[in-house]
Amino acid sequence: MARRGSRTAGAAASKTPVSRLRRIALGVAGLAAFIALWKCAFVFAWAPPGTLPDPFSIPAALVAEYTSGHLLPALGSSLIHYVWGLAVGTVAGFTVGLLAATSPAFDDVHHVLARILRPIPPLAWVVFAIAWFQVSHAGAAFVISIGVFWVNYFATAAGVAGVDPRFYELARAFGHGGFVARVTTVTLPGAAPGILSGMRTGVGQAWMTLIAAELLGVPGMGQQMNSAAGVGAYDAVVVYMLAISLIYSLSDGAFALIQNRVLRWRP
Amino acid sequence: MSGNDLLTIQGLHFAYPDIETPVFSDIDLSIADGEFVALVGGSGVGKSTLLRNVAGVIAPSGGQLSIAPAASRGSRDRAFVFQDTRLLPWRRIDANIDYGLTGLGLSKKQRRERIDEVLELTDMSAYRRRWPHAISGGQAQRIGLARALAVHPRLLLMDEPFSAVDALTRSRLQDELLTIWRRIGMAVLFVTHDIEEATYLADRVIVMRGAPAAIVRRETIACTRPRDRTAADFRALARDIADSL
């Protein structure tokens, strides 16, 4: 009895079927209230004329964007930037972060440089992206990779620094004292929770910079939003916003599955 | 020192850098094959540091330390059991036991046999696929012992292995350790601050004291096993050793 009580109180309240249903119902109600508020704002013209679309026109706008052949190419182009920027930024950030945390010599050499470069926002690099890559996929991926790099760099360095040093003594006592054996049997698994949550933050961060990076003119959803806004098609802007939201949810959900699988040893 | 000594320590000395007083100096100790030696002393006296020197995880500052090579291929000269069990939380129980077996030239099948063997010895076969967080403290300590036994060490080094478990579990683990020791016959160097535990388990009790620490007493325990903790001579001996701390 006491055990059941403490389990319900300890875990999220949404664990029982009834409270889970209730939570879903309330969530839908919250969404409906928001749409109603939005509809009111549209009907009573709370925003400057022509800048706020009718929420009920969004499905039609989605169909229009799809049939006009804008949506899917823009989506595909954005995904190219996303995947490349995310991959390059993640691998580079992980590698440099691991080096910084495991090699004192590397840490000494790079720490001043890191301090100078870290505060520069990814979008400040747009100027160089255009200069070096012109208006291209590579340019957009470059800008995205910078934001992702720092997230992974700090998560990896902190994760590695946080590994319990007693496990290194264990490694020495059981024949895993060499650098490679130590890194693969203690450092990486021990730092995995931090490293993976950094990677997951990067998965989201990449979407945040993606749209802004595409505003420089590379084809993609950012550019489509910009040109739709230019002709006052704000309902199309909302379509792209929702597309971003959907793809983010899918990629974040997929990553969460991987994360839970790798970290299934945790209580 | 006789010819069949497994471990020979002469004039061993250890100091941390930048700290003037050494932890211990002039330690002479030898352990014969199959001998059970307990090392006792007050907390912070340096017994764990001495054990880590013997284990080879930290290097002594001076003196001689030699250990006979491993008994055969597929085994290690020594293995360590930690006070805090130190199971790797990201490996299942069987993979934790496997940790010391890589690099010994054993085939996958031989490693699996070793794992089966030590799980059986420690009565933990039912837990082989568990994660370390899903077993109790006493069970984790058994796995720590199993991991060390799996490498077939000639010298088992134990650092206050039973000090973090409840009294009932402790006395059960002590008896299990003695049973395993009798069956396998490896030498044991057992660090503890519990005089009664040392007197109950060991062939010989070594007492460390002072700063820097030195060996102030070497007591051979003549009582036959199984020993009776409530017997008058046992209690008198334990009290006498405690007085020399």
From TrEMBL, chain A:
Transmembrane segments: 24-47, 79-100, 112-133, 139-163, 237-258
Entry's Gene Ontology cellular component terms: plasma membrane
Alphabetically ordered keywords of this record: Cell membrane, Membrane, Transmembrane, Transmembrane helix, Transport
Mode of membrane association: Multi-pass membrane protein
ABC transmembrane type-1 domain mapped to chain residues: 75-252
Pfam family, one: BPD_transp_1
The keyword Nucleotide-binding is annotated on this UniProt entry: no
InterPro entries in the record: MetI-like, MetI-like_sf
Keyword Transport: yes
Cell compartments where the protein resides: Cell membrane
Cross-referenced SUPFAM superfamilies: MetI-like (SSF161098)
Signal sequence annotation: none
Matching PROSITE patterns: ABC_TM1
Main location: membrane
PANTHER family documented for this protein: ABC TRANSPORTER PERMEASE PROTEIN MJ0413-RELATED, ALKANE SULFONATE ABC TRANSPORTER-RELATED, MEMBRANE SUBUNIT
Family in the record: Belongs to the binding-protein-dependent transport system permease family.
Name of the protein this chain belongs to: Nitrate ABC transporter permease
Native source organism of the sequence: Salinisphaera japonica YTM-1
Lineage: Bacteria, Pseudomonadati, Pseudomonadota, Gammaproteobacteria, Salinisphaerales
